[in-house]
Amino acid sequence: MVAFRSTDTSGRTTGLLLRCVLYSLLALGLIIVDKRYDHLGKIRRLLSIVAYPVQIAVASPFEGWDWFRESVSSRGALRADKAKLEAELRLAQFRLQRYEALEAESQRLRALRNSTVGITDRFLIGDVMDLDLDAFRERVLVDKGARDGVFVGQAVLDSGGVFGQVARVGQLTAEVILVSDATHAIPVQINRNGLRTIAVGTGDMDRLKLPYLPTSADVISGDLLVTSGLGGGFPPGYPVGTVAEVKRDPAQSLADVDVKPAAALDRSRELMFVWLKPQASSPVPATSAAPGAPAASAGRVALPPAQPQSQSAAAMPAKTPPPAKTPPPAKTPPPAGANDE
Predict the structure, then answer these.
(1) Going by C-beta distance under 8 Å and a sequence separation of 6 or more, which residues neighbour residue 116?
(2) Which end of the chain, N or C, is less packed with Cβ atoms under 10 Å?
(3) What is the DSSP letter of 221?
(4) Handedness of CA 228, 233, 239, 242 (dihedral sign)
(5) Residues 63-77: pLDDT tens digits?
(6) What is the pLDDT of residues 317-339, one digit of tens each?
(7) Hey, which of 252-256, 265-269, 300-304 has the most confident mean pLDDT?
(8) Residues with Cβ < 8 Å from 121, sequence gap 6 or more?
(9) Which residues are paired to 123 by β-bridges?
(10) Of 250, 71, 236, 222, nearest to 155 (Cα)?
(11) pTM of the entire predicted model
């Protein structure tokens, strides 16, 4: 009990335990009264208003320091994040451009493949390596040559239609002459009515000509020109171009017809070399007719005998009149009469 005793200046001892009990009971009573009747809420609110400036004054230095340190560090971090994001954005844009190029290339290759179904026996994709800078020549260099089976005169297409023909072949490369070259001509027909003619180049990649159509020809603007297949160089039915303008001069016998090429002559990067199926090419029917050639030759061999037969037949009628004159077989009855005698 010594711990609960104290001695004041007067020398009287007071019980600390008694005071602790009294204060505890007082605090408990205040808690109960505050909980049930909320009499001390107003006092607390008033005290909080009075204490708020003190709290702000005490916390302001620490909050100010934390804000300054965070703002300085966050600015540097933002700069680093900005530079990182810009680098990632540039890389993503570069990859996206490459993906778009690959997608466009895939679509072009699919179009090339789909356009050869049922007509070509074999095809080969080549890339344009170089352009002819001569203003009077429309030619490109492709990275396929004799090693790949490319030959002179072979048809070359792109995803839009007929691109040109192989003009020169090297071991590793081939020179392709465009349909727009001034020295190139291709047999075509109008898809609407089947009218056949020849389309020639003008030296302009955006224009072909139909110089051999009379003014009375049934051709109008918007007509689709396709390959006729004559000559065996190009497969039939491939688009060559669209009639852009038709001019008829009564003083002229031929119409002036401009054609817009179907192929992207100035933009295509992938070209397709095609090998025609036997039934689609003209020289192959000649080879297919080769088995029948013996029969034809036999027919030709039989023809010379046929002519002698006709000559003999013509000669026989000439000899038949003398037998007609030889009714002297009628003299045979006299021998019969002689026998009667």
Answers:
(1) 123, 157, 272, 274
(2) C
(3) T
(4) negative
(5) 888 877 777 666 777
(6) 444 444 444 444 444 444 444 44
(7) 252-256
(8) 275, 276, 277, 278
(9) 274
(10) 236
(11) 0.49
